[in-house]
From TrEMBL:
This is O-succinylhomoserine sulfhydrylase. Its EC number is 2.5.1.-. Catalyzes the formation of L-homocysteine from O-succinyl-L-homoserine (OSHS) and hydrogen sulfide. The gene is metZ. HAMAP family: MetZ (MF_02056). The lineage of its organism: Bacteria, Pseudomonadati, Pseudomonadota, Alphaproteobacteria, Hyphomicrobiales. One of its GO terms (cellular component) is cytoplasm. InterPro entries: Cys/Met-Metab_PyrdxlP-dep_enz, O-succ-hSer_sulfhydrylase, PyrdxlP-dep_Trfase, PyrdxlP-dep_Trfase_major, PyrdxlP-dep_Trfase_small.
Length: 402
């Protein structure tokens, strides 16, 4: 009797929920059930010859310094690579560190970036303000129509960067169409996949070259630590991404990697429940007379419903709503909530509501805000793990106060 012939010995054959519990399970000689935290910065070697071989890359999988190699961090990356279907990945201190690395590791002075204009604030800063300081120009386009990317491509375009669905208005970008355009011009497509989650959208299968996550969001999912991860082919990760991480050092700590590993064990369970509730809340809000518009990718009223059905297996844990009466009404609603908290974080066990115009998107001009759908009455709701009926009752009470 032996498990060698059991097909489930291969974690790639496991369903997502199983992968998130068992994937990337390195064990110490003590065979601990839960993953260990390796809180060490360095490693010692049995001999000088061993050290020389290791530094020459002759010992695969070896560890020589925790800035770029730590067993707990490795386990987190392996677990993420499994659910993403990626050959390799690297972890970072935050989602922004991951995005900055993914983008900046692919360009040099004289190159050009094309990005969708509706991006998370920090991501927009990296392509619009930071990259140009080093001679990398960028063009921002309305991401809803793939043709806008085709028109913006130049012979020196090396990176196309998108986020879908976007923050906060849940607009979609057609990943497959944009991947084809990028590749036709010899550019790499980088997708920030936070809003759809690794469970419900597979950018690599649709043609993306690198996928990034803020692990701070659904992956931790309990408001504890920051983290980020970049996933893709062995070739891209082991060359550019690894070198950038190794030499610039935005490393994920072993402790935070361990918290994220524990977060992943309940990832599928949490996201399924949060998505079930988001669907119910979206339907309840859409039926309310004081709500002008509810934006939810798998609701028929979403302007890109067909694309949402094609590219996302479910509709996200986030939704946006436009309250009649503008900013005053949006503030009155938020301030009357008893269960849902006012916070700009997302993907958390706690339901969180934010007014993008005055918080996350306050840095942008009113013109840009309106272009990207950030109206005065817009609220973004991240649906958590509370009972869906409690959330709906909380929102109904608050709407009555508007
Ligand atoms: C939060 C977020 C980021 C940045 O991640 P941090 O962990 O906060 O640095 C990037 N992109 C998206 C879509 C996000 O939601």
């Amino acid at each position: 009797m032996s498990k060698e012939n059991n097909p489930l010995i291969d974690p790639k054959r496991h369903a997502a929920a199983t992968q998130m519990v068992h994937g990337g399970g390195k064990r110490s000689p003590f065979n601990e059930t839960s993953e260990a935290i390796f809180l060490n910065s360095g490693y010692s070697y049995p001999s000088s010859q061993h050290a020389e071989d290791l530094f020459q890359g002759k010992i695969p999988g070896a560890h020589n310094y925790s800035r770029f190699a730590n067993p707990t961090v490795d386990m987190f990356v392996e677990r993420m690579a499994l659910i993403e279907g990626a050959e390799a990945g690297r972890a970072f201190a935050s989602g922004m560190a991951a995005v900055t690395n993914a983008v900046m590791s692919q360009v040099r002075a004289g190159d050009h970036i094309v990005a969708a204009q509706a991006l998370f604030g920090g991501c927009r800063y990296v392509v619009e303000d930071y990259a140009p300081r080093f001679g990398v120009e960028s063009t921002l386009v309305d991401g809803r129509d793939p043709e806008n990317f085709a028109r913006a491509m130049r012979p020196n375009t090396k990176v196309v960067f998108i986020e879908t669905p976007t923050n906060p208005t849940l607009e979609l970008v057609d990943i497959k169409a944009v991947a084809e355009i990028a590749h036709r011009h010899g550019a790499k497509l980088i997708v920030d996949n936070v809003f759809s989650t690794a469970l419900y959208q597979k950018p690599l299968e649709l043609g993306a070259d690198l996928v990034t996550y803020s692990a701070t969001k659904h992956i931790d999912g309990q408001g504890r630590v920051l983290g980020g991860v970049v996933l893709g082919s062995k070739a891209l990760i082991e060359a550019d991404v690894h070198t950038f991480l190794r030499q610039t050092g935005a490393t994920l700590s072993a402790f935070n990697a361990w918290v994220l590993l524990k977060g992943l064990e309940t990832y599928a369970l949490r996201i399924e429940r949060m998505t079930d509730s988001a669907e119910k809340v979206a339907k309840a809000l859409a039926a309310h007379p004081k709500v002008g518009r509810v934006i939810y990718p798998h609701e028929k009223s979403h302007p890109q419903y067909d694309l949402a059905k094609r590219q996302m297996s479910r509709g996200s844990t986030l939704l946006a709503l436009d309250v009649n009466g503008g900013q005053e009404a949006a503030f009155a609603l938020s301030d009357s909530l008893a269960v849902i908290l006012i916070s700009n974080n997302l993907g958390d066990a706690k339901s969180l509501i934010t007014h993008p115009r005055t918080t996350t998107h306050a840095r942008l001009t009113e013109e840009v805000r309106l272009e990207t759908g950030v109206t005065p009455g817009l609220l973004r709701l991240s649906v958590g793990l509370e009972d869906a009926d409690d959330l709906i009752a909380d929102l109904h009470f608050a709407l009555d106060q508007v």
